[in-house]
């Protein structure tokens, strides 16, 4: 049968994880539908990117309020359901132009530390980091919490020899001893 270790695109945008429309019951109902299917496929890690679901309305909440609400929903709603299936949730920091919450590896690390659960960790997308001009040295601090890595070249294409930022990031991770899952997240 088909088996996978890691999946992404956890929540659709209509399942809100921040703001006044975030509804624990709706989230749990969604998880009760999705998680048994993931478990049957052998999924061990789910990447929580879901930018439209977690992005907050800056007229409704401050960044701190949205961050705290998101952390609370992860801790009190998402993790307890995922734990039942032994599935770990990995936060994906996004590039700033596609989401306004958790937009750097270090902010992702801050969220992981706040949630403080063995069922919640960090993934890094070197393409997002490149788009945000994040210093690759932050991988040293994040490394103990990284459970998955996405890589892609410029414009989400397959890597080419001139994708030096991505190759430098992979080299840093290798030097640190990273030996967990990695995937290409490319358009072609």
Strand order of the largest sheet: 1-2-3-4-5-6
Treating each run of at least 4 consecutive H or I residues as one helix, how many helices? 7
Question: Approximately how much helix is present in the residues?
Answer: 40-55%
Order of helices and strands: EHEHHEHEHHEHE
* Strands, total number: 6
Using the CA coordinates, give the radius of gyration: 16 Å
Shape: globular
Topology at a glance:
Elements (H helix, E strand, L loop, with lengths): L5 E2 L16 H17 L4 E4 L2 H4 L8 H21 L4 E4 L13 H11 L4 E6 H6 L6 H5 L3 E6 L12 H13 L4 E4 L4
Parallel strand pairs: 1-2, 2-3, 3-4, 4-5, 5-6
Helix pairs in contact: 1-3
Q: Any overview of this molecule?
A:
41% of the residues lie in helices and 14% in strands. It has helices at 24-40, 51-54, 63-83, 105-115, 126-131, 138-142, 164-176, and strands at residues 6-7, 45-48, 88-91, 120-125, 146-151, 181-184. Strand 3 (88-91), helix 4 (105-115) and strand 4 (120-125) form a beta-alpha-beta unit. Helix 1 (24-40) crosses helix 3. The two termini are 26 Å apart. The model has no long low-confidence stretch (mean pLDDT 95).
Give a quick rundown of the structure.
This protein has 188 residues and is an alpha/beta fold. Helices cover 41% and strands 14% of the residues.
List keywords for this structure.
alpha/beta, 7 helices, 41% helix, 188 residues, 6 strands
């Amino acid at each position: 049968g088909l088996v996978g270790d890691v999946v992404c695109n956890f929540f659709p945008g209509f399942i809100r994880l921040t703001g006044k429309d975030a509804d624990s019951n709706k989230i749990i109902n969604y998880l009760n539908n999705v998680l048994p299917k993931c478990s049957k496929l052998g999924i061990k890690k789910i990447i929580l990117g879901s930018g439209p679901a977690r992005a907050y309305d800056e007229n409704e909440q401050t960044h701190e309020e949205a961050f705290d609400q998101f952390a609370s929903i992860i801790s009190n709603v998402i993790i307890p359901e995922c734990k039942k299936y032994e599935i770990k949730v990995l936060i994906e920091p996004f590039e700033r132009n596609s989401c306004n919450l958790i937009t750097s590896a270090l902010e992702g690390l801050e969220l992981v530390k706040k949630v403080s659960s063995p069922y919640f960790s960090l993934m890094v997308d070197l393409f997002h980091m490149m788009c945000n001009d994040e210093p690759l040295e932050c991988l040293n601090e994040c490394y103990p919490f990284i459970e998955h890595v996405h890589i892609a070249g410029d414009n989400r294409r397959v890597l080419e020899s001139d994708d030096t930022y991505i190759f430098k990031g992979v080299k840093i991770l290798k030097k640190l001893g990273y030996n967990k899952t990695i995937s290409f997240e490319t358009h072609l």
